[in-house]
Amino acid sequence: MSDTNYTDRVRKSLQSNFRFILRINDIPFAMVSEVSRPTPSFGSPKEYQLLNWKFKQPSGVVTWNDVTFRLVESFDSLQEDTIAGKILNTYKKLSYDNPDRVSPGVKPKDMNKKQLIESIGTVKIETIDPDGVVYETWKLYNAFVSKISFDGLKYSGASLIGASLTLTYDWADLTYTNSAGREKTY
User: Fold this and answer.
1) CB of 141 within 8 A of CB of 147?
2) Do the beta carbons of residue 146 and residue 66 sit within 8 Å?
3) Cα 9 from Cα 16, distance rounded (Å)
4) Between the CA of residue 26 and those of 72, 137, 145, 175, what are the distances in Å?
5) Are 141 and 29 in contact (CB under 8 A)?
6) Nearest 5°: phi and psi at 68?
7) Which residues make beta-bridge pairs with 8?
8) pTM for this prediction
9) Contact yes or no for 114/86 (Cβ under 8 A)
10) pLDDT value, residue 177
11) Which of the four pLDDT bands, split at 50, 70 and 90, describes residue 36?
12) Three-state secondary structure along the chain?
């Protein structure tokens, strides 16, 4: 095998942090500019002392840290809504009303986990190779938006305006798919 072929193959197989797709119902994935990958934390260790020795024992509690993703806003007069409007509308239909829009005699909406999970549907983070083939998929279980942070506006700088959303979830699976189509889920 020539050095050129080997170099091209290695270069093509290297992972790049810009090859991903975040799939969430009703959010166009082309508007997502970055996303953190799921990360487990393995509880703080408990410490035991025996005479003058200290031993650390895992606590046995696994917690999945929140995932944050960033959306880039697009303003186009031909669009029916903005990304920010779509996000806020999802939650206002579901579980939130402004105080001036609550009708007398109507029970206020009650935010609950089931409705929050259903509001965004299935959440998957897919890592793709240079040819656009998915080789790694993170699936978040019982995910819901727990925080929305809209970017501030300023005259200095040339960054794009957008919003950061934080997802809270119970756990995540990682599925690796090789070139032969075989999958392995962790």
Assistant:
1) no
2) yes
3) 14
4) 15, 19, 13, 23
5) no
6) -115, 140
7) none
8) 0.75
9) no
10) 92
11) very high
12) CCHHHHHHHHHHHCCCCCCEEEEECCECHHHEEEECCCEEECCCCEEEEECCEEEEECCCCCEEECEEEEEECCCCCCCCCCHHHHHHHHHHHHCCCCHHHCCCCCCCCCCCHHHHHHHHCCEEEEEECCCCCEEEEEEEECCEEEEEEECCCCCCCCCCCEEEEEEECCEEEEEEECCCCCEEEC
Cβ neighbours of residue 182 closer than 8 Å, sequence gap 6 or more: none
Output the furthest CA–CA distance in the chain (Å, rounded).
78
* Under 8 Å between Cβ of 20 and 126: yes
Query: Distance (Å, rounded) from C-alpha 98 to C-alpha 91?
Result: 11
Within a 10 A sphere around the Cβ of 175, how many other Cβ atoms? Answer: 16
Q: Measured on CA atoms in the order 6, 9, 11, 16, is the torsion positive or negative? A: negative
